[in-house]
Amino acid sequence: MHAVFAALVVLADATPSPTPTAPPAETVTPGPWGFVAVAFLAIAVVLLLWDMMRRVRRARYRAQVREELDLEQSEGERAAEATATDAEDIDADDRPAP
Question: Is 96 helix (H, G, I), strand (E, B) or coil?
Fold first, then answer.
């Protein structure tokens, strides 16, 4: 067994190893289809970001309008309560004494 292994090692060392060569540049580049795919992805990402920003802006404006409406409604309720309280006070003062 050792003799066979030693022979294989000797044969492996005897065979020259190939020198590495670089492939031609035109086979490594993505080509026109690669450019089209990357351009499509870039355009899709830009459109998705644009849509997202529009939706975020719309949600922010809606929240701002809701806050303003809630503020106006609470001010209106306070004004109505104050008017009702003032009317009760006036009515109580206008009653004739028994």
Answer: coil
Cβ atoms 22, 14 nearer than 8 A: no
Contacts of 30 (CB under 8 A, 6+ apart): 37, 38
Query: Using only C-alpha atoms, what is the Rg of the chain?
Result: 42
The SS3 call for residue 16 is coil
For 15-49, how does the pLDDT look when each residue is reduced to its tens digit (9 = 90+)?
566 677 887 777 777 889 999 999 999 999 999 99
Query: In Å, what is the CA distance from 5 to each residue of 2, 14, 42?
Result: 5, 14, 57
Tokens matching residue 26: 């035109």
Whole-angstrom Cα distance, residue 11 to residue 16?
Answer: 10
Tokens matching residue 5? 């292994």
pTM of this prediction exceeds 0.70:
no
